[in-house]
């Protein structure tokens, strides 16, 4: 086996890894402090489509985590980067609370469509508007293609089905920017000037966090908190580089074995 | 040979044709708007001509925004000679299927279609039926259908058609197919399609008309659901350039595209090139010459415009021009520039044939 390059960057998932809803994973704050003592760049990555960076930061600071705004990379950021790269003006079908992450992006006379989790926009009229734009050549950018998610009163459709419907109707393919797409992880690492082989991802979602990261060339550590279910580690191939109890244990392993 | 009352000759390629299946939306009229829709110029007259000619006629529609009674009444109001008995539509076909298999549906359909399911038990649903629900495609409604489907041990999703979109007077709108795909993706199931382009649907329309597929022609605006689906059954099909037809795939704007093949995948990279006369067409094709079948699609010149035909399928790619069409090159050229006009009928088709016979090559 080829010698591994030294670890230079750590990507940390938020929901389910550092915190679960409104309470922090026990010991996570101290673990983060210890990780900062190491010579690694840290990035906090999440697939959220409903919270802008400021809201995320506020929530994490309240829970006692020491995080800077520029260390947070969300799928919204990835979408914004793509819009700037393609120089297009989007029709934003995203949650209102996500709009602050798109300030400065022109939206008049749209020639692109961005879809996030925004049930209030998924009605017939708005879907037709998006459909006509895409049929005329506008690129379709999906924050992610989650099929559904769990709400208090049952399951609810995610953006995935609606993106699929539009892909079918327009005979095009959406560009998906969130986890587990490779581009998401590569974008997250862009600001760190580290190669994927020099980075590790810590997350609770085996397919989206660990699987996606490993497909991008990184190593993945699966933690048994959040949405983890026993047996998840067998669901991806190759298996996670490491499966451990929680974020603090993952940090221990990194400090002891990976630097 | 069909009975000839009109006195006009049948085009050579159409010999042996005894019946026509007509799509409605996009062929006879465009839906939407205040009055329920607008007829496409010349279409009502063409329908009368077909009926007067002795050819059998059946309307084969995927319309699911209203009951057949309501729909036919609307068309009669727009001047069409049509009755409920002449219409093959998905909802009644779906009802037969539901009864056969003991299925109790959760309906995600247009309000005006619900009466078609009046006799069906809808309590404690064990399947989902999705139609062209239009404004009923709210997030809440689609979500509810999803919850029913995902909660079933054996999810059954029945879709009334799989069209991608259709044209209304105020623009293109998403059709049932998009929402069928959405539910398929969400629940990881495959829908069963009742309606075009399902073979069973065309076959039942042909049976109701009493004409075998080889003696029938389908006329439609949807290359996949009308033309493609009909040809899969062994019928010939005509693509009209009204309704949802789009010249999107034309790469030479100066040349009027007058034909589209059933195999859309083959379109890419081949549209707009000038062709040479097909010298070995298959019998029954536009240019009947003794010979063997072509192995692949070939460009053929016609009426000063090139069109594309795929041998082996007997796709009849004819341009449907407006009422101003005269059997003269100039008029035909003028008529060709007018999209949106439509006139069906043997007169046009046989007149068109004159061009081919004159050997006008482009």
From TrEMBL, chain A:
Give the protein family: Belongs to the HAD-like hydrolase superfamily.
SUPFAM superfamilies attached here?
A: HAD-like (SSF56784)
What organism is recorded for this protein?
A: Anser cygnoides
Recite the UniProt keywords alphabetically. Answer: Coiled coil, Magnesium, Metal-binding
Q: Does the keyword Coiled coil apply?
A: yes
For whether the record's keyword set contains RNA-binding, the answer is: no
Q: Which InterPro entries match?
A: HAD-like_sf, HAD-SF_hydro_IIA, HAD_sf, LHPP/HDHD2, STAS_dom
Name of protein: Haloacid dehalogenase-like hydrolase domain-containing protein 2
Automatic annotation (TrEMBL), chain B:
Write down the superkingdom of origin: Eukaryota
First-level EC class: hydrolase
Its UniProt entry gives the catalysed reaction(s) as: diphosphate + H2O = 2 phosphate + H(+)
Q: List the SUPFAM superfamilies.
A: HAD-like
GO MF terms here are:
inorganic diphosphate phosphatase activity; metal ion binding; phosphatase activity
Asked if the Swiss-Prot or TrEMBL record annotates the protein with the keyword Cytoplasm, the reply is: yes
**Region Disordered: what ranges?**
244-275
Question: What Enzyme Commission number does this protein have?
Answer: 3.6.1.1
- InterPro entries named in the record: HAD-like_sf, HAD-SF_hydro_IIA, HAD_sf, LHPP/HDHD2
The entry's localization annotation reads: Cytoplasm; Nucleus
Q: Which cofactor does it need?
A: Mg(2+)
Q: Does the keyword Protein biosynthesis apply?
A: no
Q: Which GO terms describe its cellular component?
A: cytosol; nucleus
List keywords of the entry alphabetically. Answer: Cytoplasm, Hydrolase, Magnesium, Metal-binding, Nucleus
- Give the family from UniProt: Belongs to the HAD-like hydrolase superfamily.
Record's function text: Phosphatase that hydrolyzes imidodiphosphate, 3-phosphohistidine and 6-phospholysine. Has broad substrate specificity and can also hydrolyze inorganic diphosphate, but with lower efficiency.
The protein's name is Phospholysine phosphohistidine inorganic pyrophosphate phosphatase
């Amino acid at each position: 086996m080829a010698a591994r390059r030294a670890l230079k960057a750590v990507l940390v998932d938020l929901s389910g890894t550092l915190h679960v809803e409104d309470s922090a994973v026990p010991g996570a704050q101290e673990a983060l402090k210890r990780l900062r003592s190491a010579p690694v760049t840290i990035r906090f990555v999440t697939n959220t489509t409903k919270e802008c960076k400021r809201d995320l930061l506020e929530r994490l600071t309240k829970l006692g985590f020491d995080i800077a705004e520029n260390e947070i990379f969300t799928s919204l950021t990835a979408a914004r980067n793509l819009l700037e790269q393609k120089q297009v003006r989007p029709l934003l079908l995203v949650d209102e609370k996500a709009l602050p992450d798109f300030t400065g992006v022109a939206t008049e006379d749209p020639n692109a469509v961005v879809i996030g989790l925004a049930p209030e926009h998924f009605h017939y009229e708005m879907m037709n508007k998006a459909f006509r734009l895409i049929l005329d050549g506008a690129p379709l950018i999906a924050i992610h293609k989650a099929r559904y998610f769990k709400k208090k009163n049952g399951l609810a459709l995610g953006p995935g089905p609606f993106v699929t419907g539009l892909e079918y109707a327009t005979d095009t393919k959406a560009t998906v920017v969130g986890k587990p797409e490779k581009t998401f992880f590569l974008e997250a690492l862009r600001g760190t000037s580290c190669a994927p082989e020099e980075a590790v991802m810590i997350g609770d979602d085996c397919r989206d966090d660990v699987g996606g990261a490993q497909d991008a060339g990184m190593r993945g550590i699966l933690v048994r908190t959040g949405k983890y279910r026993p047996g998840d580690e067998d669901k991806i191939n190759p298996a996670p580089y490491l499966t451990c109890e929680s974020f603090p244990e993952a940090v221990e392993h990194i400090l002891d074995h990976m630097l | 040979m069909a009975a000839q009352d009109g006195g006009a000759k049948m085009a050579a390629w159409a010999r042996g044709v005894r019946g026509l299946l007509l799509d409605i939306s996009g062929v006879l009229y465009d839906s939407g708007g205040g009055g329920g829709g607008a007829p496409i110029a010349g279409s009502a007259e063409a329908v009368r001509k077909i009926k007067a000619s002795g050819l059998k006629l059946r309307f084969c529609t995927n319309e699911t925004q209203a009951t057949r009674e309501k729909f036919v009444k609307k068309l009669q109001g727009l001047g069409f000679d049509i009755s409920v008995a002449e219409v093959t539509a998905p909802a009644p076909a779906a009802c037969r299927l539901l009864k056969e298999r003991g299925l109790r549906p959760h309906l995600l359909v247009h309000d005006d279609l619900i009466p078609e399911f009046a006799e069906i038990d809808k309590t404690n649903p064990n399947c989902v039926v999705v139609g062209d629900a239009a404004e009923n495609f709210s997030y809440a409604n689609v979500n509810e259908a999803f919850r029913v489907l995902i909660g079933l041990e054996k999810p059954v999703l029945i879709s009334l058609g799989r069209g991608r979109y259709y044209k209304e007077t105020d623009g293109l709108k998403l059709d049932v197919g998009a929402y069928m795909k959405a539910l398929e993706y969400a629940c990881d199931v495959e829908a069963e399609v009742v309606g075009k382009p399902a073979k069973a649907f065309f076959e039942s329309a042909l049976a109701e008309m009493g004409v075998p597929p080889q003696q029938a022609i389908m006329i439609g605006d949807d290359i996949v659901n009308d033309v493609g689906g009909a040809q899969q059954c062994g019928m010939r099909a005509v693509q009209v350039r009204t309704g949802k037809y789009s010249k999107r795939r034309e790469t030479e704007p100066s040349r009027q595209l007058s034909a589209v093949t059933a195999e859309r995948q083959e379109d890419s990279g081949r549209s707009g090139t000038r062709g040479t006369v097909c010298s070995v067409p298959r019998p029954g094709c536009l240019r009947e010459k003794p010979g063997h079948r072509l192995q692949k699609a070939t460009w053929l010149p016609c009426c000063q415009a090139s069109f594309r035909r795929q041998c082996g399928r007997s796709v009849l790619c004819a341009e449907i021009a407006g009422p101003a069409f005269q059997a003269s090159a100039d008029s035909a050229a003028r008529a060709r520039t007018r999209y949106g006009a439509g006139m069906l009928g043997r007169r046009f088709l046989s007149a068109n044939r004159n061009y081919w016979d004159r050997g006008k090559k482009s």
